[in-house]
């Protein structure tokens, strides 16, 4: 019975989407943008992704009020996507076309690109909507695809909420307030995180250029906010891989937090078989369990796992038991209080330089002094 209801709801939603799209075509769309999603690839294949949307004007400023931030966040979640429309992708002198799905998303694997068009560490392609009747805020958008340099020693996969960005995910009211009433400028970065991540990017050589991937269970609707937060705080640029919460015909929602992250990391490992990974997350959600599944499947490819310990005194026995299992696969695991803890452990594993660790310690100490904490 439940499966039948779900299928009917899904089909009704798709039909309503098509009717709304036809009405918009007749009545007229607002200015439209092709929102590019930063992705990754190799010299053999590039993954290109984005979404065709009506422009919302949700770019935040440091002096925006909480009320304005709330309005912008609601606009993000009330996205007006443009379905079933061709997007022209251009790389060098070659063009290829992909069509947006019912939710306005498009995903395309550009196989066998011309070697001359591949730039490391970032290859740039242009995107434009092929329909001349759609008003566009700009003639084209630029999408960047991460192609790791030959000097890369390993890759880093990081969670976002309560790993780099303080959101209070373990407290519902605090988390809701942070998510709804703050923008990329007013959200808080954990002290030392920028220095730690840049140290990991440069690796033990100091100039490795290790690729970064930000994997979160947040919806694609807030992609722009997370990408802007990363840029504002000088974190290493990298693909932001989020989740589609839309209804599916075979189940009510997309995969859960744990399986979603595991699948994303598996895809990264398969794309770069020559790169091992460092995994960074927090104890507030399911990161420990997701990373343990990766360690089980690829024990020789996980260099280290760092989990920001949000509530050490209240850490569950289940999490402690999961953490102990990493030793069964010879995967270094560390609960960390701050970036300094992670940097010292990373130095012992020859993942970062001594100079980088000193910079991280200085930043954490300065932050503690300014807040009066020990």
TrEMBL record:
Domain Phosphatidate phosphatase APP1 catalytic: 155-309
Gene Ontology MF, one: phosphatidate phosphatase activity
Pfam families xref list: APP1_cat
Taxonomic superkingdom: Bacteria
InterPro entries for this protein: APP1_cat (IPR019236), HAD-like_sf (IPR036412), Mg2+_PAP (IPR052935)
PANTHER family, A to Z: PHOSPHATIDATE PHOSPHATASE APP1
Name under which the protein is recorded: Phosphatidate phosphatase APP1 catalytic domain-containing protein
Protein species of origin: Alteromonas halophila
């Amino acid at each position: 019975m439940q499966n039948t209801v779900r299928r009917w709801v899904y089909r009704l939603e798709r039909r309503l989407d098509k009717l709304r799209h036809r009405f918009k075509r007749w009545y007229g769309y607002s200015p439209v943008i092709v929102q590019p999603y930063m992705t990754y690839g190799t010299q053999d294949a590039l993954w290109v992704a984005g979404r065709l949307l009506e422009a919302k004007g949700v770019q935040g400023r440091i002096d925006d009020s909480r009320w304005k931030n709330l309005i912008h966040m609601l606009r993000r979640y009330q996205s007006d996507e443009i379905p079933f429309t061709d997007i022209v992708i251009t790389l060098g002198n070659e063009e290829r076309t992909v069509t947006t799905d019912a939710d306005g998303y498009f995903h395309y694997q550009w196989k066998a690109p011309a070697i001359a068009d591949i730039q490391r560490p970032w290859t740039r392609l242009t995107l434009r909507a092929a329909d001349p009747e759609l008003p566009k805020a700009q003639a084209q958008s630029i999408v960047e695809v991460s192609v790791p340099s030959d000097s890369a020693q390993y890759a880093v996969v990081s969670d976002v909420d309560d790993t780099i960005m303080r959101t209070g995910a373990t407290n519902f009211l605090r988390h809701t307030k942070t998510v709804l009433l703050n923008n990329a400028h007013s959200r808080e970065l954990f002290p030392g995180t920028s220095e730690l991540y840049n140290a990991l990017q440069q690796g033990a050589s100091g100039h490795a250029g290790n690729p970064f991937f930000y994997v979160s269970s947040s919806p694609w609707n807030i992609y722009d906010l997370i990408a802007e937060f990363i840029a504002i705080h000088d974190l290493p640029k990298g693909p932001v891989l989020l989740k589609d919460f839309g209804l599916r015909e075979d189940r009510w929602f997309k995969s859960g937090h744990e399986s979603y992250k595991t699948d994303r990391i598996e895809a990264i490992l398969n794309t770069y078989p020559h790169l091992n990974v460092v995994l960074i997350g927090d104890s507030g959600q399911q990161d420990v369990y997701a990373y343990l599944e990766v360690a089980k499947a690829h024990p020789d490819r996980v260099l280290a796992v760092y989990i920001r310990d949000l509530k050490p005194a209240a850490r569950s026995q289940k999490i402690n038991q999961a953490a102990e299992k990493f030793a069964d696969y010879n995967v270094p695991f560390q609960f960390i209080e701050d970036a300094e803890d992670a940097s010292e452990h990373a130095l012992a594993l020859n993942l970062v330089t001594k100079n980088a660790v000193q910079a991280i310690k200085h930043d954490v100490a300065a932050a503690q002094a300014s807040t009066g904490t020990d």
